[in-house]
Design goal:
mainly alpha; 6% strand
Length: 130
């Protein structure tokens, strides 16, 4: 099995399959991060930990924070797409990818160790950026 690109045949080697697999992991992790909080939003301990009240006068604030948590991941992704091409041209692909990985590690630490809603929001944005 071989693909054709510009009239050249690309062999179906293990290396090529591994390369495509690892490239696809980026899309998988972005989709996973985009959807993972959906299950967390249904858990009562999440709301009590961050002092979000879904009923009464605090419901608007809680709904705004849920929207912000979802929206900041996408906003970070948009900004990341625009920035990463320029950074790759300036610093090279290898260094840019290393920087993106560092941003992702920091974002996961922020999200996992969040003690305040703002820390979680910053983590979500950085996760989208990376």
């Amino acid at each position: 099995m071989a693909a054709t690109m510009n009239n050249k045949s690309i062999p179906a080697t293990r290396y090529n399959f591994a390369l495509v697999f690892f490239v696809a992991l980026g899309s998988f992790t972005y989709g996973f991060n985009a959807s993972i909080l959906g299950t967390v939003f249904s858990l009562a301990p999440f709301f009590s930990y961050f002092h979000l009240d879904l009923t009464g006068p605090g419901a608007d604030y809680a709904n705004s924070m849920i929207g912000a948590m979802n929206g900041l991941l996408s906003a970070g992704g948009i900004i990341g797409c625009l920035l990463m091409t320029k950074l790759a041209d300036k610093f090279g692909r290898k260094r840019t990818i290393q920087g993106i990985c560092a941003i992702c590690v920091v974002s996961v630490i922020f999200q996992a160790a969040a003690v305040h809603i703002a820390m979680l929001l910053v983590g979500r944005f950085l996760n989208g950026l990376g």
